[in-house]
Structure formats: structure tokens, C-alpha cells
Design goal:
Blueprint: H1 2-30, E1 32-39, H2 43-56, E2 60-67, H3 69-77, E3 84-86, H4 90-98, E4 108-120, E5 140-143, H5 148-160, H6 167-176, E6 178-182, H7 185-193, E7 199-203, E8 215-218, E9 227-234, H8 241-252, H9 254-262, E10 266-267
Parallel strand pairs: 1-2, 1-3, 5-6, 5-7
Antiparallel strand pairs: 3-9, 4-7, 4-8, 4-9, 4-10
């Protein structure tokens, strides 16, 4: 009898363990992931949206890859997998659409952004306005030519060429003061926050809450400023198109807009 009971106990234990293994395997099989390729300027906002989305979608993990929009576009072109693309420039989205890599019907404008002059707290170069960026000796950190914010900066400089107060003298002085070109806007912002440059031109959204005590924003006059349009789109190769659509709904919802507003994004 003892032997029989032992066999029964062992059998029940085996079935229990097998059941637990099957349950774990089933749970793992139910887990899903959406991968987002997003501009570096969205790091803070999407970081806040991640727990909101994951809480509303149990078993779903959001993984985000942040970098320059041009770098992300290249990665996707070269075969990197992503479900959603959120660049800071419409050109990067357009390029992927031309290649048939984006679901055209999914492309949606959800926010805008503006350029801002940023200086370290304390403002050692005593910069008060746009014109001061051309003062000899001012150290400006910028970005490489393919980074969207640098393209917008160039558009801003072109606008100043028609100004009697600024003009070509300002543009030449500005360019002469650039000491560093970073591969994304987050790198440029960090250098200013660390005091390694006197000023930089980034987006309003780059002065996140953790940097607000280290950086001061100086306004760029509206007549020279550039508005960046932010679009999102689902990759044609995405295996999670429904979940991606759900994420886009969050971006355009009141809750999503409030998160974006907290990071100085403007409505589309």
C-alpha cells in the first residue's frame, strides 16, 4: 500500500509540475511586444506613455529605440524590425513611404514642436537673444547635417538672411561659433546641460523635467522659428498592427496629449 501511495503521490506531483510548466509556457506565448523607433526628442514623453499603455494592455511589452530620425530611417531601410516609426521630420517618414515600408493609411500627425535656444543655468556667455549667438567666442553645440533639428536650424538661419538686424553677418558668426556637431539632439542638449557649451538650438521638448534645473530656454522670435511636424506610422512588416494602432490611439488621445504637453510639445 505504501508503495502504491508513493507512486500515486509521484504521479500527482509530476502532473502538477507539468501543469505549471504548461501554464508558464502558455503565459509566455500570450506575451506580446511592440517595437517603436522614435526620435530622440520623444524620449521623455514616450517613457511616460509606456506604463500607461502596458497597464491598459496586460501582457504587452513596449520596447523603444531612440535616436536621430535619419539614423532610425537608415536602420529600418537596412532591415531592422519595427512596428511603429515616430520621426521628428516628415521627410524621414516620406522616404519610407516611397519605399513601400509604411502603411500609408496609418500615417497620422499627432504633435508639433518648435526650436528653442538653450543655455546652461547661470548663462555664462550672457546670451539674451538670437543675435547673441553670433558674438565672437560663444561656444555653440549643434548636430550633424542629417539630424532633423539641424535641418530646421538651417531653415531658421535662411530666414534670418532677410533680416536687416541679422542677415549674413549673423549667419556667418553663428556658424563660426559651432564647436561640436552631435549625432542626435539629445547629445547636444546634454552638452549644454553639462556646461560644455554656451548654447545650443534644440526643441522645446528637449528641456525635460530632469534637465529643467540645468538649462534655461531663450525664445526664438516667431518670425524666424520653425515648426516641426511629428507623424507616426505603422511599418508594413509589422506583426502587431492592431496593437500599433492602439498605441497611436494613445498618442492622439487626451491622455496622450497631456503627456506630450508636459514635455512642451504642441498639438498637431
Amino acid at each position: 500500500m505504501k508503495t502504491t501511495h508513493s507512486y500515486v503521490s509521484l504521479g500527482l506531483a509530476f502532473l502538477l509540475v507539468l501543469g505549471l510548466i504548461c501554464s508558464v509556457s502558455a503565459a509566455e506565448a500570450d506575451e506580446k511586444e511592440i517595437i517603436i523607433f522614435a526620435a530622440a526628442s520623444l524620449t521623455g514623453a514616450l517613457g511616460d506613455m509606456q506604463p500607461i499603455f502596458e497597464t491598459a494592455h496586460p501582457g504587452v511589452k513596449v520596447t523603444a529605440n531612440f535616436d536621430s530620425s535619419a539614423t532610425l530611417e537608415t536602420q529600418i531601410m537596412e532591415g531592422a524590425y519595427a512596428d511603429l516609426f515616430l520621426p521628428a521630420s516628415t521627410k524621414n517618414m516620406d522616404n519610407l513611404q516611397k519605399e513601400g515600408m509604411i502603411e500609408n493609411d496609418s500615417v497620422t500627425e499627432y504633435a508639433t514642436n518648435k526650436l528653442a535656444i538653450i543655455v546652461p543655468v547661470g548663462n555664462p556667455a550672457r546670451i539674451k537673444n538670437l543675435a547673441d549667438l553670433a558674438t565672437p567666442g560663444v561656444k555653440i553645440v549643434s548636430e550633424t547635417s542629417e539630424v532633423p533639428v539641424r535641418k530646421y536650424t538651417e531653415q531658421m538661419l535662411n530666414k534670418t538672411l532677410n533680416s536687416t538686424d541679422l542677415g549674413k553677418t549673423f549667419v556667418d558668426g553663428f556658424r563660426a561659433n559651432i564647436i561640436s556637431e552631435e549625432t542626435n539632439v539629445a547629445g547636444a542638449t546634454a552638452k549644454v546641460a553639462l556646461g560644455e557649451a554656451d548654447a545650443g538650438i534644440t526643441y522645446y521638448s528637449d528641456v525635460t523635467r530632469d534637465l529643467a534645473s540645468k538649462i534655461t530656454i531663450i525664445e526664438i522670435p516667431e518670425e524666424f522659428n520653425i515648426v516641426a511636424i511629428y507623424k507616426c506610422g505603422i511599418l508594413s512588416e509589422s506583426n502587431e498592427k492592431e496593437l500599433s494602432q492602439e498605441y497611436m490611439k494613445l498618442l492622439t488621445s487626451d491622455e496622450g496629449k497631456n503627456v506630450l504637453k508636459n514635455y512642451n510639445f504642441l498639438p498637431a
